[in-house]
Amino acid sequence: MPVLLFKHRGPLRHASHSASSKSVNLHCIARPPPHPHQRNHLQLPSRCLHQLPRSALLSMDTAKPLIFRTVVLTACFALAAAQGSPGTATFYGGADGSGTMGGACGYGNLYDAGYGVLNAALSQTLFNDGASCGQCYTITCDTSRPGGQYCKPGTSITVSATNLCPANYALPNGGWCGPGRPHFDMSQPAWENIGVYQAGIIPVVYSQVKCSRGGGVRFSLAGSNYFLLVNIQNLGGSGCVGAAWIKGDGTGWIQMSRNWGANWQALAGLVGQGLSFAVSSGGGQYIQFLNVAPAWWQFGETYNTYQNFYY
What we know:
Radius of gyration: 22 Å
Strand order of the largest sheet: 1-16-8-9-13-12
Structural class: mainly beta
Largest sheet: 6 strands, antiparallel
Number of strands: 16
Helix content: 10-25%
Strand content: 25-35%
């Protein structure tokens, strides 16, 4: 039995700050497989070589080179993952985070959608035209860089991507959220876990991480008689949608396309039919959500499910 959650849809809001970081590897877009002739051509990152002991480097060309190189590669990439990517962070939305509701992912009330107040707007480099909506990032203030005196040492916070921090072209290079500058404009409650309020902006290190969600994936319905717009919310695992399909009682599976943010569209007349969905997460997991909405569903309603993603 599907569970009806709410009918309210909040207004679209945009963040006003900006900052900078490297983008992570796990994105909610299809990637071509590696060329068969390139699959064995691994290169050890130079920054890892500089952090390995000299004896280890010498050993790579002596005893059991193949086994040792495998061990070195594993340790090196684990080190790179632990270090994360450098960036910056600001905050917005007020002390209670209420100003972060809505946003360019289309989630509306973030509490109802499953994300809560620990959220962030991403610069356009990270936002990836909405494909990153719902992803999770662990962010740590970087005490080793300028501005690090405003860090709260030894603390990290995990946030969900729920909004876009747009470039501000009244500032040089579009400001902190300008092209090529990964940045997190965090909710104030999330930001104050890692930075001193008076700073306003801090250097950070971030990593994309697995999302842990309560409950199942949610589907919020909007549109018209011959156009259905579905906001897909509360994904675990990779947190984001890679592909989506919809099926009415009287149809086969219909491929949907991203309209904006986390909103997926189907150009089909499905009013009066019960609805099922299929979703492929950004991590590649595929789930069918059958009989989500009854035939008497209405635009503006959101339906819960009891299934979610692990990757």
